[in-house]
Design brief:
13 strands; single chain; 34% helix; nine-stranded mixed beta sheet; Aminopeptidase; 321 residues
């Protein structure tokens, strides 16, 4: 079996929203979606507010009310509240506070490799998001941008790109698979496995094996290895033969097994071990799987990960390389 769920640029705890809660969120969103003329004026002319360290603690709690739509930004804030800006410097911006309607997590662009970091958006109001994308200067639309958002924003992104005169393509569409209760995972017999975390010496190997790996992706992967949880299986020479990493959003990713070591159950063991580890430390336990990646989808769902049938995550690339 090809044990690999590489996905573009890229398990929920027990408080994952149920179907009824999802509908409640949609109702709340519909209420927000009615903009007054004053709202429109504010969206067009008011700068977004950058949240403070204390604000981020409040935000982390509030975002739990909007799962699964907010899970990706929740993961970013969760990680940020624990590792600080040393791990992955970003600006967390809202249109207003505390009753925000649009949230942007904007990475700092200090060198070319930073372009691999996602600009992540969560919105309670499509109208507010549309106005901000169309008229705010918070995003520099002249540079390369990889924007992570809900798939249902695709038409909005297409219209905005046309109006701003920037090329855009939908780079990836993914299921968000969430493990509601990691305690139900079957025991993974890892007694015969030599396990470790990845370190910086493994950067080239991981980058070379990643579907989107290139010279410019090294900085992002280095940051993941140094600052976020990872796990790998080592061979007799202490070299990784299978591994899994964690993105800045807390999503597990870059699961990969070298071809000559496939069929040994390494991927299943790594997902199980990493899921239990993340859950024990309070992390949300989830991942993104591209729609066409049936093998990885089967692997994760066999371990109890579940998708929300009404939700898809998408990555939109503007001004591609």
């Amino acid at each position: 079996m090809h044990e690999d769920f590489n996905f573009n640029f890229k398990t929920l705890p027990t408080f994952l929203r149920t179907g009824s809660a999802f509908k409640k969120h949609r109702t709340a969103r519909d209420t927000f979606n009615t903009l007054t003329p004053r709202d429109t004026l504010q969206a067009r002319h008011h700068a977004m507010r950058q949240l403070t360290t204390e604000d981020l603690k409040t935000l982390e709690v509030d975002l739990k009310n909007y799962f699964p739509q907010s899970l990706q930004v929740y993961g970013c804030i969760f990680q940020l509240n624990r590792t600080g800006q040393r791990a992955d410097p970003v600006s967390v911006l809202v249109d207003q506070w505390p009753e925000f309607r649009v949230l942007l997590i904007k990475p700092e662009y200090r060198e070319k490799g930073d372009l691999f970091k996602d600009l992540t958006v969560f919105s309670k109001s499509d109208d507010c998001l549309r106005e901000l994308l169309a008229h705010s200067d918070v995003i520099d639309w002249k540079m390369f941008i990889c924007l992570a958002a809900e798939l249902h924003h695709v038409k909005m992104m297409e219209v905005m790109a046309i109006n701003r005169g920037v090329p855009m393509k939908k780079e990836a569409v993914c299921y968000m698979l969430v493990l509601r209760d990691p305690s139900n995972l079957l025991h993974a017999d890892s007694s015969s496995l030599k396990l470790s975390s990845l370190n910086e010496s493994h950067l080239e190997l991981v980058n070379r094996s990643w579907k989107f790996g290139c010279e410019d992706s090294k900085l992002m992967i280095k940051n993941m290895i140094l600052n976020f949880p990872s796990c790998c299986v080592l061979d007799s020479d202490n070299q990784p033969v299978a591994w899994i990493l964690t993105y800045a959003s807390c999503a597990m990713g870059m699961l990969y097994t070298l071809p000559e070591h496939r069929g040994k159950g390494y991927a299943k063991a790594l997902v199980t071990i990493m899921s239990k580890r993340l859950h024990s430390q309070g992390y949300p336990v989830y991942c993104f799987i591209e729609e066409e990646n049936h093998l990885s989808y089967s692997l994760f769902t066999s371990l109890g990960f579940m998708k929300d049938p009404d939700y898809r995550a998408a990555w939109f690339v503007f001004n591609g390389f």
